[in-house]
Amino acid sequence: GAVAMDMDLAGDSPADGGGPHAGEKIPIVVEVCMRSTSTARQDDVRDAIEVYLEDLGSVIYAEGPLAMPSAEDDPYLHAHVESARVTDIGEDAQLGATLLTWMIEPVIYVFQLDEDGGGEEMDGEDDIATYKEWPLPNRDFHGQWEALVFDDDDDDD
User: Is the model's pLDDT at 91 over the cut of 70?
Assistant: First the structure.
């Protein structure tokens, strides 16, 4: 019986890396837009952003741009990241609160915008565009995702 109890206690110790607040971390969603010229792997950029957030020491709990380091402070991020934004803030903490990095669980989405405009399908007789198609995510729509309207009507399928 004592051995089992000792094993349970060992799971709660700070030595497991979780620390006393491991179950209480606040998710912070960060959308990272890579530069169109970047050939870096998205996983490498995600890892670099995680390290950058740890090095910052704190994050403001609010939606908006996340300041990126200068070329002198972090040449890798400067070379590969165009912008980063904190998004999808919930009610896990007070809006505008300063959260220390040990309090947060970063959820990082890395993407690269397609620079090509939309392609048109033309009606052969009248040279009228019957539809236009864009590869996503696309530079034409960057910053406008919340304004897009999707038809929920399933009757037209």
Answer: yes
Tell me the whole-structure pTM to 2 decimals. 0.66
Amino acid making up residue 28: I
- In a shared domain, residues 52 and 95: yes
For the chain, the farthest-separated pair of C-alpha atoms sits apart, in whole angstroms, at 85
Same domain, 96 and 54: yes
pLDDT tens-place string over residues 12-27: 434 444 444 446 899 9
Predicted confidence (pLDDT) at residue 127 exceeds the cutoff of 80: no
DSSP codes of every residue in 8-30: HHHHTSGGGS--TTGGGPEEEEE
Question: What's the number of domains the chain is made of?
Answer: 2
Which of 7-16, 49-58, 121-130 is predicted with the least confidence, judged by mean pLDDT? 7-16
Whether residue 129 sits in one domain with residue 64: no
Domain that holds residue 57: 24-112
Residues 44, 121, single domain; the answer is no
